[in-house]
Amino acid sequence: MNRTRSRGWLGALPLLAFFALVFGVPAVVLVAGAFTAQGRPSLANLSQSLQGGYLNAMIGSVRLSAVVALLGAVLGTFLAYAIVTSRRTLLREAVLTASGVLANFGGVPLAFFWIATLGNSGVVSGLVGLPSGSLYTFWGLALVYLYFSVPLMVLAMAPALDGLRPQWREAAANSGATSWHYWRFVALPVLAPAMLGGVVLLFGGAFSAYATANAMVGTVVPLVTLKIASALTGDVLVGYENIALALSLDMVVVAGLVMAIYLPLQRRTSRWLH
Amino acid sequence: MAALTGLERVSGADTPRPRRAWWRGAVFLLAGIYFLVPLGTAFWYTIHTPGAGVSLSAYGELLTADGFVRSLSLSLGLALATIAVVLLLALPAMLAVRLFAPRLRPVMEVLCTLPLVVPPITFVAGIGTALRGGTDLLAPTPFWATLIAIQDPGFPLVLVLAYVVLVLPFVYRSLDAGLRTMDVRTLVEAARNLGASWPYVLARVIVPNLRSALASASFLTLALVLGEYTVASLLGYQPFAVWIVTVSGSKGQLSVAVSILSLLLIWLLLLAVSTVFGKEKGK
């Protein structure tokens, strides 16, 4: 057993080697490329990636993700509360299953659904006389992103809301608390970690979404993922590849900061799930 | 007296129940409109052509559409290869960490969370640049042929490699949950003491106990790979999700029909996962 024990960790070696090669090498190349301009080390790419159109795209992405995350969190929490307090088990199961499906429904098919509904030749836009191009805007994109964000929030909040014990409400009421007091001082503090975690999850999802935006708006709405893609596919001048790498590095930094909030919170939330 | 007020409050909180029910009904109604209308109109869009009436021809056209079979079989092939590679890499590694190297556990957890933090588009930016740089750098060596081979458009292995990284977090979670339900150490030691070889232990002791976790990891991988667009399109390949976009320009109805089918597919896959897990719980 002793000999196996000392060699046992070798079982993890293939995965570690694979990860170093497939994830590590591109990561190193990305960082190195972001700090290289005309073959020499420089900060030019990074400073350029934070100026003009590129900065606009980054701000656009962060704004869109923030709007989707906040709206999705509020609407998703309401829906989750409605489900959790509903006494009809069938309805409850149906909505939770549908949330599971829709939270995983993204990318190109999602874009086509909405184009068929509210696009320029869409079914509903013809009925209500929607002006042409309304869907292909910032708010149109936010509306579409909510289609997978709200269900995701429902999935994140339902277990936490289920964990709210009726005894807490009764205890609060017995101590003379109004409904507002109960929500403000008991329920919301308990739910806060789960909600913040959900907000971060929705932000990350909207921030890194590319397929839906690409199929819907092309380059009408400035988003950082669309800028990276057009720089990579060579729609722009040669030498702009490293700008794509610098933009990617910016994105990783933003996503990393947001994730850094999420991970410790996730641990705190799980305490309330049991 | 205090107890009396307390009781009154409780019953007072109970009386506005009809109002709360009304509020809940409104939430369900709005959610129903928002989520079901696009679904319904998308379906209507695929079967109704202005001036030509209602027909299901968009769905029939699918099978004969140019590139449908090729792109779908490419996607399925990529998914199967990804499932095989990710399970062969992750399962031995997780067992090794559990049995022999618990100190590697935090490392594994970080590695299996990183792909969630990094947006796929930045990952593909890194891979694309690494491939181009690598091809120049390795041109005089035999590795060059390997780099070219993994980029073969007929079956781009590079996509399998990228997908393995992208699905690793989900596979890790799923297998970790499965391993938690069994006493790995006792089972392995018992089998080894009885003279079983390592491959035998894996195939006859570990895998049968992990069946549901392995199944759900595979279904999740299948769903993710079939719908993946960003990496494939930016590296210039044409699996299923990329093909849908290509045909959408000329055949709008067809592309929406495929979208509806892909929603159904996600539903079926999730149903499969939950049935597999439901059975396990029932035992």
Automatic annotation (TrEMBL), chain A:
Residues 58-262 form the ABC transmembrane type-1 domain. The keyword Signal does not apply. CDD domains: TM_PBP2. Its main location: membrane. One of its GO terms (biological process) is transmembrane transport. Keywords: Cell membrane, Membrane, Transmembrane, Transmembrane helix, Transport. The keyword Glycosyltransferase does not apply. GO terms for cellular component: plasma membrane. It is found in: Cell membrane. Pfam families: BPD_transp_1 (PF00528). It is a multi-pass membrane protein. The chain crosses the membrane at residues 63-83, 95-116, 136-161, 182-207, 243-265. Belongs to the binding-protein-dependent transport system permease family. CysTW subfamily. This is ABC transporter permease. It comes from [Actinomadura] parvosata subsp. kistnae.
